[in-house]
UniProtKB/TrEMBL annotation:
UniProt-listed InterPro entries: ArsA/GET3_ATPase-like, ATPase_ArsA/GET3, P-loop_NTPase
Coiled-coil residue spans: none
Chain intervals with Basic and acidic residues compositional bias: 310-324, 360-374
Taxonomic path: Bacteria, Bacillati, Actinomycetota, Actinomycetes, Kitasatosporales
UniProt organism field: Streptomyces monticola
Pfam families: ArsA_ATPase
Residue ranges constituting the ArsA/GET3 Anion-transporting ATPase-like domain according to the UniProt record: 20-289
UniProt-recorded name of the protein: ArsA family ATPase
Disordered: annotated span: 310-375
Amino acid sequence: MTLDPVPTLDVDPLIDDPKTRIIVCCGAGGVGKTTTAAALGLRAAERGRKVVVLTIDPARRLAQSMGIDSLDNVPRRVKDISGDGELHAMMLDMKRTFDEIVEAHADADRAAAILGNPFYQSLSAGFAGTQEYMAMEKLGQLRARDEWDLIVVDTPPSRSALDFLDAPKNLGSFLDGKFIRVLMAPAKVGGRAGMKFLNVGMSMMTGTLGKLLGGQFLGDVQTFVAAMDTMFGGFRTRADATYRLLQAPGTAFLVVAAPERDALREAAYFVERLAAEGMPLAGLVLNRVHGSGAARLSAERALAAAENLDERRIVDQEGGKEGVRNSPESPEPPAQAADEAEEPTAPTAPMRSKASASDSTDHSDSTDRAHSTDPAHQLAAGLLRLHAERMHLLAREQRTRDRFTALHPEVAVTEVAALPGDVHDLAGLRDIGDRLAAGSQPAGAEPESA
C-alpha cells in the first residue's frame, strides 16, 4: 500500500506572518523543544521580527547558545543578530513570577504577609502544577505588554506534555476549590464571629487535619488563605484568559517529537488533545532524524559484503584492483579456500597428488589467517556492519513515522536531521533554523528494500 504524501510544514510563512503572535513548542521531555524554540526565535528575529523566547528548561544551554551569561525572569537582548529584528530571551523563575502576581494584586502590607507565609513559600517553590501555571502566567504578562511581535514558548519538561494545558485550570480549581473556600470562610465572616465559626463549625475538620498535617501547617494555610482572599478570583480570571489566549488565532502550536515510538505516541495524543480543545496546531517537528549518504546500499548487501570479507569469499585482488572471478581480464583465477576447492570434471585434467593437495590446503589456511588479520579488511567489514545498523535504524524510524502519519495524515511535518553534536552557539541555532525551514526528509531516510 502506498501512503499519500505527507503535507510539509512551511516554517518561514508561519514566523513571517504578522498575525502569528505566539508559537508554543510542546511535546515529551528530551526531544529538543528548547533548541527548536531558540532556533525558531533566532530565525524569526533575523527575518525582521521582534521576538522573545521564554524557556522553562532548567538547563542553561539556551543562554550559552545565545551568548548570554545567564537568563532570569527578565528578557535579555541577544547580541550579534543580523537583519532588522531583535531577539530577547528569558528563563522562567517560577517563584519570582508568583511573587510578582502577589505584589501586583495586593497592597504592600498584605503582600508582605503573603510573601512571608510558610505555606505560600512552599506553594510558590514547588507545588504540583505551579511551574506550568506560572509559565502560562508569564506568557500572559508578556502578551499584555505588547512589546514583542512574536513570543516563542518552550514548554516545561513535564512528566506529561498534557500538564502544560491542564495547569491553568488545575491551579485555578485548587485555589477556588471547596477546601480553600472552607478555610477562607472565617476570614470572610471576620472578627469574633469568624473566630467562633472557626472554633465551633470547623473544630472537627481542623482537629482531623491538624493530626494529619500538623497544627502549625494548618495555621499557615489558614493565614495564607485569609491574606489571599481578594486574589483568588484573579487567579481564576487569569487562568481562563490564558486558556483563551492559547485558543486564539494568533497562537500556533508546534508539537516536537523524535522518530521514536514513545515520543510519537505522546505526540499523537497531544495532536488529538489540541484538536479537542480547539487549539491551533501548525504541525509536527520531527527532530533528530537519521539519514545516510549511501542509502542505496541496503543492510542485507552490506552485511553480506562484511561476511565475505571476514570469510575471504571476495576476490583477493592485489594493488587495490577490482576484478570478476574467472573473468577473461584476470590472468589467474583467485585462490579459493580449501573447503571450496572442487575436483576438475574434464577427463584430461591431471590428478593432484595427496601431497600437493595438502600443500595447497596449508597454503590456503595460512592465506586465510593472514587475510583475517588484515587491518584494511577488518576496517572495511566494520564499516559495512555500521552501515547495516544505520540502515536498520532508518527503516525503523520510517515505520514509526508512517504509523503516525497514517493516524494523522492532515498534520504537516518538517524533519530535522540528527546532528553529530550539541548546539552551543548562534551558528548552530541558525543551522537548526535552516533545517526546520527546509521541510524535507534528510538524505537516505527512505526505508530499506525488503
